[in-house]
Amino acid sequence: MQNKYSAWSLLKGALSGQRHWTQAWRDATPKPSYDVIIVGGGGHGLATAYYLAKNHAVTRVAVIERGWIGGGNTGRNTTIVRSNYLYPESARLYDFSLKLYEGLSQELNFNIMLSQRGLVLLAHSRHDLHAMARWANAMRMNGIEAELLSRSEVGELAPALDLSPQARLPVLGGFTQRRGGTARHDAVAWGYARAASSLGVDIIQNCEVVEFIKDSGRVVGVNTNRGAIRADQVAIAAAGHSSVIAKLAGFRLPVTSYALQAMVSEPVKPILDTVVLSPGTGAYVSQSDKGEIVMGAMLDLYPSYAQRGSFAVKQAIIGATLELFPSFSRLNLMRQWAGIVDVVHDSSPIIGPTPIPNLFINCGWGTGGFKAIPAGGWTFAHVLATGQSHPLAEPFQLRRFVTGRLIDEAAASGIAH
Amino acid sequence: MMQIPCIHCGPRDENEFICGGTSHIARPALQESDQAWGEYLFFRDNPKGLHFERWRHSFGCGQWFNVARNTLTHEIHAVYAITAPPP
Questions:
Q1: A252 to B39: CB separation less than 8 angstroms, yes or no
Q2: Residue B47 needs a FRET pair 20 to 30 A away by CA distance; which of A53, A129, A263, B53 works?
Q3: The whole model's pTM is what?
Q4: Pair A263, A250: CB distance under 8 Å
C-alpha cells in the first residue's frame, strides 16, 4: 500500500535512509473488462478516473495511454492556471477548476506546487485598455476577482518590463487576477494517477487503441495493441488526437489540431514573480521555480500533428518577449517543444456524449487544457457515472455546433488563434 | 521552416503564406438541415497524415492555391490550382 506523504513520514524515513518509499502508483496490465475505459492518460483522463472513483464509487476503471502518463500536453504546457474568461458559462467552469486546484495538494496528498503568484495582462494601446476594462468587469460580474492596473501598478508587479514610453510595445496599464499563477504540470498528472490508483483504478501505459469493438452500433470495448478490453462505457480524453480516435469510432468532431510551442531559457535568479501575458502579441512569460524563463505565444497556424514548432513562430515568440523584457536578451534558450492542441471554433470545450452510444468525449480545450484539468475530470466523471451532464458542463455539448449556441472565448483563451 | 512551392512564384518560406484550412468542402443547399449546415461550418476530418488544404501567398503574389500536405511530417506532396480537384 501507499505511503501517506507528510513531514512525519519524511522524518521517520530519515532514520532508515529514506528506503521506505514505494512506487507512487501501480503500472497495471489490462483486465478483460471494466465499467469504464478512459482513452488517454493525460491530466484530464487521470482526473476523470480519480473523480469517478472518489465522487461516484466507480472503481472498475482503466486509463489506457498510448505512451506514458502526462507525456502529451500535460507535460508540454506552460503550467499557467487562471480563470479570467469572459462569458458566465466559462467563468463558472474555469473558476470551479481554479478552486479545485487551490485544494488539490491536500486532496491528492501530493504537492502540485500551486503558486498563486498572480497573472498580469498588459494593455499596449488605448483600445487594449478599453477591452481590458470590459474583460475585468465581465469577470467581476461573474464573481471572479479582477483588478485594473495603471502602468505604475503593472511596474510594481513586474519591474523587469520595459515601461518606457518609447518601448516598441508600450505598457499603458492592464489588469490582474491575483488568484492566477502556476502549478507543477507533471505533479498534477502524477498526483491524480497516484490517488486514482490507490482507489483501485488501473493505469495502463503503452496501450494504444487500434479499433472500437461495437455491438449493434454501441461501443462495448476497444481492441488495443495489448489485446481486447471490454467496457460498459468508453471515454475519450485524447486532446490533440481526439479526431484520430473519433475516426476509429466512426464520427467527426469540430476540431482542428495545431502545434502550440513553448520554450525555456537557462535558469537564472528570481526576476519575475508573476505571470505576464500580452494579448496584443500573444506572448506569455513566467519564471519557473527552477529559474527558467518560460515563454509561449501563438499557434503555428496550420494543421499539424508534429510535436515540434516552426522556426518562424519561434522567432515571433522570442521577438515579442524581448520587446517586453529587454534584459532577457542575453539568456540562452535551453529547450523548446510543441504540443498538439485540439482547437474548436469557439475555443470552448466539449464534455459529454458522442453520436455513438456508450462513447463519451472530453476535448476541445485547445490551448487552455491544463488549467481546466480538475473541472474537466470532475464534470466528465459526472456524465459517465450518472448519464446526465454536470450543470457546469451542460452548455459545452457537441450539439451546440448544430444549434449555433456557441460560447466564443477566442479572446479570453489568451492565445492568437 | 517549411518551404512551400507557390504555384505562381515557386518555393518560398512558410512565413510568406497563410493557411486557409481544409479544401474541397462543398457548401450545402440553403434548404438543407441545421445538421448539414453545422457539419459544413464546423466539423472537419482533421486527419493525421495527408490533408488537402488552401494556402494563400499573402506576402507574395497574394493568390490562393491548394496544397496536399502531410500533417505529421509536414511533407508537401502536391500543389495545384485553387479550382482544381484533389490529385
A1: yes
A2: A263
A3: 0.96
A4: no
Question: Can you tell me the distance from the alpha carbon of A35 to that of A266, in angstroms, rounded to the nearest whole number?
Answer: 46
Q: Please identify among residues 7-26 of chain B the ones whose CB lies closer than 8 Å to any CB of chain A.
A: 13-15, 18-19, 21-22
Angle at A349 between CA A344 and CA A353, to 5 degrees: 110
The residues near B29 (Cβ < 8 Å, ≥ 6 apart) are none
Could you give the angle at which helices A373-386 and A185-198 cross, rounded to 10 degrees? Answer: 30
Q: Which amino acid is at A381?
A: A
The owner of cell 487551490 is A102
The tens digit of pLDDT for each residue in A73-123 reads 999 999 999 999 999 999 999 999 999 999 999 999 999 999 999 999 999
> Which residue in this structure is represented by grid cell 523584457?
A325
Chain A contact set for B2 (CB, 8 A)? 310
For cell 502526462, name the residue: A70
Q: Which chain A positions have a beta carbon within 8 Å of B15's beta carbon?
A: 312
DSSP B82: T
* Alpha carbon distance A28, A363 (integer Å): 25
Chain B residues touching residue A310 (CB < 8 angstroms)? 1-2, 14
- Phi, psi dihedrals of residue A280, rounded to the nearest 5°: -60, -35
Give which of A400, A402, A408 to mutate to test B binding, by max B Cβ within 10 Å: A402
Cβ(A63)–Cβ(A90) under 8 Å? Answer: no
Q: Which H helix or E strand runs over A71?
A: none
Is residue A340 within a helix (H) or strand (E), and if so which, with residue range? Answer: strand A333-344
Q: How many CB pairs under 8 A join A and B?
A: 71
Give the ipTM: 0.97
How big is the CA angle at A158 (ends A153 and A164), to the nearest 5 degrees? 75
